[in-house]
Write a structure and sequence with these properties.
The protein is mostly beta strands and about 300 residues long. The protein has a single domain, classed as Beta-galactosidase, Chain A, domain 5, CATH 2.70.98.10. It has two helices and 27 strands. Strands 10-11-12-13-27-23-22-17-20 form a nine-stranded antiparallel beta sheet, with no helix packed on it. Strands 16-25-24-21-18-19 form a six-stranded antiparallel beta sheet, with no helix packed on it. Strand 8 and strand 9 form a beta hairpin. The longest helix has 6 residues. The protein is globular, with a radius of gyration of 19 Å.
């Protein structure tokens, strides 16, 4: 476990061994993220905090046979199939910190993910580099992601975060989205099968209601989570590489997930088509290309 501290009221706790999960974000002296007390002992990066999604987001299916096969996909020109866990490989892999682990002076730290040869053989046959820079400021946590193609051929990838924002009262919470469309998801496979206009950008959380929905067509960079009972606003800002926000929350859960994703939901099944290289279904890095993605979480107390 690492601690990155700006001051006593603004710091994060990071679990590099659990996918570089920022499982605690103290901002303005208040905890912003939900994670169970035994989070580190559980060993489940999706139990809370801020899981990293890479190189895929959402679920992957192989639908070339008579029945869909979960977590499988095929690639044009390559024999056999590959396994891709839900939300990718990054959350289940230990990251390496650049510099000494533990609590060190300064408000920024950098981590790298290196996928093993075995992982590439069975899950993702592409050689990429991914670095994650985390910076803590008063009321802010800024993530800078650098993804590099280390090969001479195109490489598909998708990226996202899955933050579990802590809420005390769901009924007095609301999400405001900068989106114009909602993806219509297959009820069982949870992959897109169309879209519809989003007529109401403000989402409420009724008792017993589950949210698990994807929203597209961004016309602004920031989504908001408003916690009315706590007089608190949390903003999630993205750069132009991101194409959607996913909202997830279970009935009576002490969290609401407001997740920034690039394109790529359901995109890995299209790698069987040679046209995947045009980037229509999943983002693509050209030979030796590097992309830098930025996400910013901020919080502000409201009267």
């Amino acid at each position: 476990m690492d601690i990155l501290r700006f001051d006593k009221d603004n710091f994060v706790r990071i679990a590099p061994e659990l996918g570089c999960n920022v499982y605690s974000w103290i901002a303005l002296g208040r905890e912003m993220l939900y994670a169970p007390e035994d989070f580190l002992k559980r060993g489940d990066p999706f139990a809370g905090g801020n899981p990293v999604l890479f190189p895929s987001v959402g679920r992957t299916w192989d639908r070339t046979g008579s029945a869909p096969v979960p977590e499988k996909y095929r690639i044009a020109g390559i024999t056999g199939s590959f396994t891709m866990p839900v939300h990718g490989l990054a959350a289940g892999t230990e990251w390496r910190r650049k510099g000494e682990p533990g609590e060190t002076p300064g408000s920024r730290a950098e981590y790298s993910l290196v996928l093993s040869r075995e992982t590439r053989e069975h899950h993702y046959p592409f050689e990429t580099g991914i670095d994650l820079s985390i910076q803590v400021l008063p009321g802010e946590c800024v993530f800078r992601v650098t993804v590099s193609n280390l090969e001479q051929r195109p490489v598909p990838f998708a990226f996202g975060f899955h933050p579990f924002f802590r809420v005390r009262d769901r009924a007095s919470s609301r999400v405001i989205l900068p989106c114009t469309r909602q993806a219509v998801l297959h009820p069982e496979l949870l992959i897109p099968r169309g879209e519809k206009a989003l007529t109401q950008r403000e989402l409420r959380f009724e008792p017993g209601q589950t949210w698990d929905a994807a929203f597209e067509g961004l016309d602004g960079p920031e989504a908001l989570l408003v916690l009315e009972d706590e007089h608190l606003e949390i903003g999630v800002s993205v750069d132009t590489h991101f194409r959607m926000f996913v909202v997830y929350s279970e009935p009576d859960a002490p969290f609401i997930c407001l997740e920034p994703w690039t394109a790529g939901i359901g995109g890995y099944e299209h790698l069987l088509e040679d046209s995947w290289k045009d980037g229509k279904y999943v983002p693509v890095l050209g030979p030796e290309e590097t992309k830098i993605l930025t996400v910013r979480y901020r919080t502000e107390e409201k009267e």
